[in-house]
């Protein structure tokens, strides 16, 4: 029980942070970094998106801007612009994480050497030449291919954070179970490899008032299966508390439900009943609908 949190809010899609990136305004960026530190994040993600125009200049600038006020938390360099990552790696005071390297040869053949030469960690994204894997076996095959290439280049499994990809439960309900099954396989196919994911993707497209309970439930389910870090919002006190192991009641009721020993609903608080019901939706025992908590 417990996990690392990768703070997600230094993201170009955020209105204020996006403006700060464009205008090179350090104040909002540094305030967000300090806030994330105060909440206890383990990594700070810097997400520039595609950053096609000015990424090579922007990513090093953001890295240095953050490190002026927070230099004791490692950074995650998050952009599809490989040159921007290469430019920022020498600026990092602590070994960073490259987010992410896809299981696509034309991507990983360029990016793995960056990790090997710099000593960086990297997120291994289970996205292959044909896109999203269909099941846990395809995830496993992509994982073996990508980690073999990394090991050959000198990157050990302990610096590789496997992301099996989270998809919206209201569109692709079986994919959630596939990811849980993949987590059961991970240490057999990649001993010592780490794990992470963008867990909030599971609730994309779900009514806003239901997103939080889905996110917390799936975070706990994946953590039970061995997931050791999550890209999350540091403002989410429930996630931060789970990360520090502060909600054993949530962990226990979800684990029992996953093991087929769900407690009687009338013996639980309203909050814990919600987690049991949501766990059953994610496992596919209950058909997804916008009213599963009311049933």
UniProtKB/TrEMBL annotation:
Keyword annotations: Methyltransferase, Transferase
A molecular-function term among this protein's GO annotations: methionine synthase activity
Pfam families from the UniProt entry: Pterin_bind
Transmembrane feature ranges: none
CC terms in the record's Gene Ontology section: cytosol
Superkingdom of the organism of origin: Bacteria
Domain named Pterin-binding: residues: 3-269
Keyword Methyltransferase part of the UniProt annotation: yes
SUPFAM superfamilies: Dihydropteroate synthetase-like
InterPro entries in the cross-refs: Dihydropteroate_synth-like_sf, Met_Synthase/Corrinoid, Pterin-binding_dom
Gene3D superfamilies for this protein: Dihydropteroate synthase-like (3.20.20.20)
GO biological process, one term: methylation
Similarity comment text for this entry: Belongs to the vitamin-B12 dependent methionine synthase family.
Protein name (record): Methyltetrahydrofolate--corrinoid iron-sulfur protein Co-methyltransferase
Lineage: Bacteria, Pseudomonadati, Thermodesulfobacteriota, Desulfobacteria, Desulfobacterales
């Amino acid at each position: 029980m417990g996990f690392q949190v990768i703070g997600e809010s230094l993201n170009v899609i955020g209105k204020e942070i996006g403006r700060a990136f464009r205008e090179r305004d350090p104040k909002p960026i540094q305030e967000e970094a300090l806030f994330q530190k105060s909440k206890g994040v383990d990594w700070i993600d810097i997400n520039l998106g595609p950053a096609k125009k000015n990424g090579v200049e922007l990513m090093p600038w953001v890295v240095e801007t953050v490190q002026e006020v927070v230099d004791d938390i490692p950074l995650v360099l998050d952009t599809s612009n490989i040159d921007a990552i290469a430019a920022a790696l020498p600026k990092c005071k602590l070994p960073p994480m490259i987010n992410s390297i896809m299981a696509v040869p034309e991507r990983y053949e360029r990016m793995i050497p960056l990790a090997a030469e710099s000593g960086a960690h990297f997120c291994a994204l289970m996205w292959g030449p044909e896109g999203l894997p269909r099941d846990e076996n395809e995830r496993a095959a992509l994982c073996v291919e990508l980690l073999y290439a990394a090991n050959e280049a000198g990157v050990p499994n302990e610096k590789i954070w496997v992301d099996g990809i989270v998809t919206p439960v209201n569109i692709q309900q079986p994919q959630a179970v596939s990811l849980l099954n993949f987590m059961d396989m991970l240490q057999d196919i990649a001993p010592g490899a780490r794990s992470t994911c963008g867990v909030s993707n599971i609730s994309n497209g779900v009514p806003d008032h239901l997103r939080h309970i889905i996110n917390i439930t799936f975070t706990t389910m994946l953590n039970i299966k061995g997931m050791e870090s999550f890209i999350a919002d540091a403002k989410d006190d429930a996630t931060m508390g789970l990360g520090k192991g502060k909600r054993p009641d949530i962990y226990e009721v979800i684990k029992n439900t996953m093991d087929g020993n769900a407690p009687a609903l009338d013996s639980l608080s309203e909050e814990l009943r919600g987690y049991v019901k949501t766990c059953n939706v994610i496992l596919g025992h209950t058909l997804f609908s916008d009213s599963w908590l009311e049933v």
